[in-house]
Write a structure and sequence with these properties.
The protein is of the alpha/beta class. The protein is 37% helix and 14% strand. The protein has helices at 12-19, 35-41, 58-63, 82-87, 100-115, 118-126, 155-168, 182-188, 195-201, 221-226, 244-252, 272-275, 291-309, 321-324; strands at 3-6, 23-26, 47-50, 69-72, 91-93, 147-151, 171-175, 191-192, 204-207, 232-235, 258-261, 280-282. The strands form two sheets. Strands 8-7-6-9-10-11-12 form a seven-stranded parallel β-sheet, with helices on both faces. A five-stranded parallel β-sheet has the order 2-1-3-4-5. Helix 5 (100-115) crosses helix 7. The structure holds (2R)-2,3-dihydroxypropanoic acid. The site of (2R)-2,3-dihydroxypropanoic acid has 6 residues, from loops.
């Protein structure tokens, strides 16, 4: 029987799907495997069920020559060196689409919480500070009718745009390397603009771009200085896209009204300057975390692993070409 490593604790019934096909080594824990241990556990394994945090680089691949398939339960694959995998005939898959709507819902939750000061006011109430009603008590910004700016207009960006345009009557502007086809833009009234214009005009800016060397600190001090002091910033993409220190400074200095952050540089550590601020809503990388969606993400990784290792067609391979090369 072929051997597969499951690198994180996942849903037991989904483990059973893999167990019916492969001999399993299960790291049944929420702490990720450290690199030397990951490499040790991968010896003799042809497949890896990965949670997205494992670093799959050339060194690991060279140390694990039997590995044939790395199947991620996440859409983001910034910790995988895809070129190195492809060069060695290792199939890589991610989990797009199944999390699009759930993640877009959460972007809205964070954006609205930041704009309407939900966390800040709840903490105030829980502290027992609420003594009287005031005309401007936690008065924030409106979301309906405002300008929604989206940086990165892939599937999740478009799902956020749909919510904004059709549900909240927002004007949608976006910046992306490539412009959407007119038939996608038109129903949303979405307008492509230069990044600088996006930063200047957005009332609520949402970041949805993949993390790459080019998008590292795509929003730093210079970009934040262009934004309206009344604006909010929401990041559901990846830590490292925002310069967290610069963001904390902007939020503390009134350069920006509020932020909603689900991802952080160096997470699960969160920069103490952010933790000290009341005008930022902080959540622990849970944008895709509804039960049905997390299950769908795991099931899709399993579908990919089974197909990749049994001669099938993995539904969401990133480098399907390696299979035709006999990899
Ligand atoms: C993803 O799928 O990339 C989400 O960020 C969960 O990690």
């Amino acid at each position: 029987m072929q051997k597969v490593l499951i690198a994180r604790r996942i849903f037991p019934d989904i483990v059973l799907r893999l167990g019916a096909q492969f001999e399993l080594d299960i790291h049944d824990d929420d702490q990720p495997l450290q690199q030397p241990e990951l490499i040790r556990r991968l010896q003799g394994k042809v497949g890896l069920f990965a949670s997205g945090t494992e670093l799959i680089d050339a060194a690991l691949l060279d140390a694990c020559p039997e590995l044939r398939a790395v199947c991620l339960m996440t859409v983001g694959y910034n910790n995988v060196d895809l070129a190195a995998c492809t060069a060695r005939g290792v199939l890589v898959s991610n989990a797009p689409d199944v999390l699009t709507e759930t993640t877009a819902d959460f972007a809205f939750a964070l954006m609205m919480a930041a704009a309407r000061r939900v966390s800040e006011s709840e903490h105030y109430l829980r502290r027992g500070d609420w003594k009287e009603w005031r005309v401007d008590l936690f008065a924030g910004a409106d979301v309906h009718g405002a300008t929604l700016g989206i940086l990165g207009m892939g599937r999740i960006g478009q799902a956020i745009a749909r919510r904004g345009a059709l549900g909240f009557g927002m004007q949608v502007i976006y910046h992306n390397r490539s412009r959407l086809a007119p038939e996608l833009e038109a129903p949303l009234g979405a307008r492509w603009v230069e990044k600088e214009q996006l930063l200047r005009e957005a009332d609520h800016l949402v970041l949805v771009l993949p993390y790459t060397p080019e998008s590292h600190h795509a929003v730093g001090a210079a970009e934040l200085s262009l934004m309206k002091p009344s604006a909010t910033l929401t990041n559901i993409a990846r830590g490292g896209i925002v310069d967290d220190v610069a963001l904390a400074r902007a939020l503390a200095g009134g350069q920006l009204a509020a932020a909603g952050l689900d991802v952080f540089e160096g997470e699960p550590q969160v920069h103490p300057d952010l933790l000290a601020l009341s005008n930022v809503v902080l959540t622990p990388h849970i944008a895709s975390a509804s039960v049905p969606t997390r299950r769908a993400m795991c099931n899709l990784a399993v579908d990919n692993l089974i197909a990749a290792l049994t001669g099938g067609v993995p539904p969401t391979a990133l480098n399907a070409g390696v299979l035709s090369l006999g990899g």
